[in-house]
Amino acid sequence: INTGAVPTILPIPGLAESKFAVDSTGIQRLENLPKRLGVLGGGPIGLEFAHLYNTLGSQVTVLDASEAFLPRVEPSIAALAKGYLEEDGIQFLQGVHTQEIKDGEASLTLVTDKGDFEFDILLYATGRKPNIELAQMMGLELTEKGFIKVDSYYESSQSGVYAIGDLIPGYMLAHVASSEGIKAVRAICRQAEEPVDNSSVP
């Protein structure tokens, strides 16, 4: 099983109802380039689209609740990345906590503890969670954080059912899922190997 992940929608008043707020799938379906793009969340997905739309000509502002930029990355590398992105014209606001989102006629207003911000489109990239609908239908055991529980060979609580990728604990990265898939198939074929070592994931 590898049904991937879905965007996490934070319980921010007005977010789910806003017609100007999109997730990482919705932003790829925009018919027009937004003049002012707000990006809620400073993780890899948010930064990828921030860079893309800045290159296309949007005025991009990234708002992140974390005080640190890319906190999981080596600080010196994170500082270099932020510097390059700022040189390109992207504005970063750290330690910003969103309180409400209000739709206007042609834009939205982001109400935060650092003031109000108006955008034509807001991308919310505030994390992803495993898409476990099928796993729940099958009655597979889950971890406390909502992932499918697997053993060292990626077999779930149900004999003969294996899970990989975003559905199990670890990095939500395509190349990690590919490696896990190869190891799961080898285990099924009685050629079991050691599981993927997440400490060596680039």
Structure explained in plain terms:
The protein is 23% helix and 21% strand. With 202 residues, the protein is α/β, with parallel strands linked by helices. Strand 6 (98-103) and strand 7 (108-112) form a beta hairpin. It is elongated, with a radius of gyration of 20 Å. The model has no long low-confidence stretch (mean pLDDT 94).
Order of helices and strands: EEEHEHEEEEEEHH
Span from first to last CA?
Answer: 24 Å
User: Helical amount among residues, as a percent range?
Assistant: 10-25%
Class derived from helix and strand content: alpha/beta
Summary of the model, kept short:
With 202 residues, this protein is an alpha/beta fold. The protein has helices at residues 44-56, 75-87, 133-138, 174-188, and strands at residues 5-7, 21-22, 36-40, 59-64, 91-94, 98-103, 108-112, 115-119, 121-124, 128-130.
